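Practice problem 4.
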């Protein structure tokens, strides 16, 4: 493979090899290490890389295709599927058919601007300036994730509100249809893990859905690789889902060489136990202060303070830049 994605399968693990591979490919897609349009290795290539049977690899690819993350092109291969705005489709085409008079009004306005001496580029700037201003005045941004992992949504909301400087609302995926029935505009933001379900609800209502890429956690993965064997490694996050995938990826990288303990930050009992047991603790930014406070509270009982490391933002920087452009915020 030309990219830096590497697969690690622990064959003696209780976690099925197919799930290990599925989660690792899903992570590579969600973190954009495999971007839209990227051709995945053939089943034969991936079988050789991982040591798995081709039937197992084929099963994983079928599961990925069922989730809408990849698509099979006959005679060509398996490709990462473009989603939301990436697919080149737009809500404008059906709207032009639905509102032909409005389209003619836009054409007439554009012709008048050109008659007054504006160039096409200048006319475009005039339109966009007005549109951007209205978006800034009335934009409604909804973050949606399944209710089983609202922690991931809370993490996204915190990061987006800091980056965008606008209010962001968290809506469980199960309640998204009801929330959208109360509005005629807005933007739904979600992780690529949940894009298919969000689009099925939002697109029929002419509400755009923007998938965000999560950080590829390159530094954190290198950290995990460097942890000495026979030590305890702790991970703390708002999100149970993030902890689950992080634990699986860590296991795939290190197997039984290190003991991994995870907890959500609001579980005071487990957090207290973790800070007393782990030599190294990795925390998301939203949980960092709470973990630091827990370490300080237990300092008299600790022989050595654990090394506390704050992870990168959950949402990738390119996705933040894209959202700013889409919302007219920069």
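Answer key:
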């Amino acid at each position: 493979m030309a990219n830096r994605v590497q697969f690690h399968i622990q064959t003696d693990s209780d976690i099925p090899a197919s799930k290990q591979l599925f989660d690792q490919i899903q992570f590579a897609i969600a973190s954009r290490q495999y971007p839209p349009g990227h051709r995945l290795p053939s089943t034969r290539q991936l079988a050789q890389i991982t040591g798995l049977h081709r039937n197992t690899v084929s099963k994983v690819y079928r599961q990925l295709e069922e989730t809408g993350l990849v698509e099979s092109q006959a005679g060509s291969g398996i490709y990462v599927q473009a989603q939301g705005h990436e697919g080149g489709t737009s809500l404008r085409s059906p709207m032009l058919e639905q509102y032909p008079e409005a389209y003619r009004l836009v054409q007439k306005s554009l012709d008048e601007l050109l008659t007054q001496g504006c160039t096409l580029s200048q006319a475009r700037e005039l339109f966009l300036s007005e549109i951007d201003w209205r978006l800034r005045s009335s934009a409604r941004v909804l973050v949606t994730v399944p209710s089983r992992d609202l922690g991931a949504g809370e993490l996204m909301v915190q990061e987006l509100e800091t980056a965008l400087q606008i209010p962001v609302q968290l809506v469980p995926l199960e309640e998204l249809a009801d929330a959208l029935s109360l509005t005629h505009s807005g933007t739904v933001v979600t992780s690529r893990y949940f894009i298919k379900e969000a689009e099925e609800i939002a697109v029929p209502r002419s509400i755009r859905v923007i998938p965000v890429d999560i950080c590829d956690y390159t530094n954190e993965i290198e950290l995990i690789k460097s942890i000495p064997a026979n030590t305890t490694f702790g991970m703390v996050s708002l999100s149970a889902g993030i902890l689950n995938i992080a634990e699986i990826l860590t296991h795939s990288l290190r197997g039984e060489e290190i003991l991994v303990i995870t907890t959500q930050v609001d579980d005071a009992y487990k957090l207290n136990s973790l800070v007393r047991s782990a030599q190294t603790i990795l925390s998301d930014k939203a949980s960092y202060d709470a973990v630091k406070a827990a370490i300080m509270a237990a300092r008299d009982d600790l022989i050595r303070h654990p090394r506390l490391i704050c992870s990168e933002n959950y949402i990738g920087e390119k996705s933040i830049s894209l959202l700013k452009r889409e919302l007219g915020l920069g």
